[in-house]
Task: structure prediction
Amino acid sequence: MKTLLALILSMITQLAFAEKTIPKPAQPYQDFSGVYTCTGDDAHEGKYTGTVTMQLKPEHSKGPYASYDFKLKVPGYGTYLGHAAANGDVAAMHFALTDQSTKDYGTGIARFTQDKQGKLHFHKFYFEPEFKGGNTGQEDCVRK
Result:
């Protein structure tokens, strides 16, 4: 009985002073930085092409979350400046035409994928609450 009690006390002591496992950090964020060639379809304006540039802001990124500066140039329409916040392969994107009188601004949500050749793509749906009474559209972009 004393031996059993000593064994139990020994096990309790070992457990009490055992090293604690440090949890592994979350998977690091993916870097979607780069220049993308895009084709889009806007409910009011129709089909268009553009170039998206995304630049990672590492000082504002942590774990699976990443922050970006965002710029979209659309020939014939202008430049849209904004930002993006990503979690894994999904990113929310805010953008606004530099000519603010048009109220051409909105928010999009995009999913990033990689094709068999290793090229990065994203598909984005966007909503513009004030542009021409409200507007939506979609974009497909491929990193150069």
